[in-house]
Design brief:
5 helices; 66% helix; mainly alpha
Length: 146
Amino acid sequence: MQTEASKPYIEFLICLIGLMISIYQLQMSSCAKYWQEWWESRVDHFEKQLCQTIEKVESREAYQLFTVSSQDVNKIVRERLLDSKGWSVINWCILGGFSVGRAPIKVSLFLLLAWAALLVLSINFSAIPVFDFSQIIDGFYFVEKT
């Protein structure tokens, strides 16, 4: 833990880099979720068309592999989990239906806010009217300044 030897410029730079990386992580995870939604919509659309064609041409029922209601999926997954492991906290988390595509977005938002808070805390706002960089970027001190 740091006591007195604060390196304000390095701390400020680390916070700034962390903030920028979090912004880019948010962009990447949001873009990935966008394209996931796009391709899921395309699979849904073409699966319905394919099933309709099979039912018309072959006069038999076509089974949808990808377009299934969340209730049906949850029921099947619940039965599999209970058969294999019984009930546990891990199973409860699995059945929570958390989104793999949304989790990185939430993590990057949290880190973005944390880095922004650290960046703000590393700035001595009372020195801004003086505009002296050596006083503006104050760093972190875990004991009182003398």
